[in-house]
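Customer ticket, subject: "Can you confirm the structure for ABC transporter permease subunit?"

Message body: Hello, I'm evaluating your service for our small team and ran a test protein. I'd like someone to confirm that this is what the system normally returns, since I don't have a reference to compare against.
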Amino acid sequence: MAKTRSHAGRSIAAHAILITYTLIALFPVFVIVINSFKSRRAIFAEPLMPPLPGNWDLVGYQTVLKQGDFFLYFQNSMIVTVASLFFVLLFGAMAAFALSEYRFRGNLLMGLYLALGIMIPIRLGTVAILEMMVSAGLVNTLTALILVYTAQGLPLAVFILSEFMRSVSDDLKNAGRIDGLSEYRIFFTLVLPLVRPAMATVAVFTMIPIWNDLWFPLILAPSEGTKTITLGSQVFIGQFVTNWNAVLAALSLAIVPVLVLYLIFSRQLIRGITAGAVK
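Agent reply: Thanks for trying us out. I re-ran your input and got the following:
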């Protein structure tokens, strides 16, 4: 009886902590969204009040859609994010499969070398990256951003996926080899479907930093035709006057793709996290 009460108490405490953390994390999003539907005066007078008939105003969304090329910025962000995710998942899964499946000299050192990419921020190499992109003629192109974000996401992808691929049954892969499947067929048809939860986890943790990044778009692709949605939102922030209605509206619209991705991958994401916890 005492053990049951103790377990229930710990469960309640854990849920209380998680709920508190969730509320703290969602509070800024809530403030941004509700204020994007309010007039400028209402934003500063009552920032925590929901939009009501008296203060309801869509001027922020009208400004975003009329001023600035919001749809171009959105399109650029989607291209960069989707392409980067594709290459991170493809090359990360291939590297993870090689490290987990094949034993060769330097296997452990290679894994540790890739793991260093998780601990060392890529922004420390900004000057060298900029010089490289200038030499290659890739400044003010989306290709520059895709290359940087792919390099940024690969270490975490390899680290997570290699652990999951080690749990895939050797008997299954050996049976595929006996049936005459090539290593590529084994990888794409047998291994990848079994690590979908891990792929979803990597996709979510990779997409959010890419979508929200301001640093590399500002340095590598600041031209009007290559601005991402995060950088494009800065057009409404001036040195002396800031159009907060437009800024909040742009940020609210920028949240939508992240929510859609989470809804798509939420089940796989939870499975991947819980599977990693069990390990």
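A couple of notes from the result: The two ends are 30 Å apart (CA to CA). The domain at 60-278 is CATH 1.10.3720.10 (MetI-like fold). Feel free to reply with more questions.
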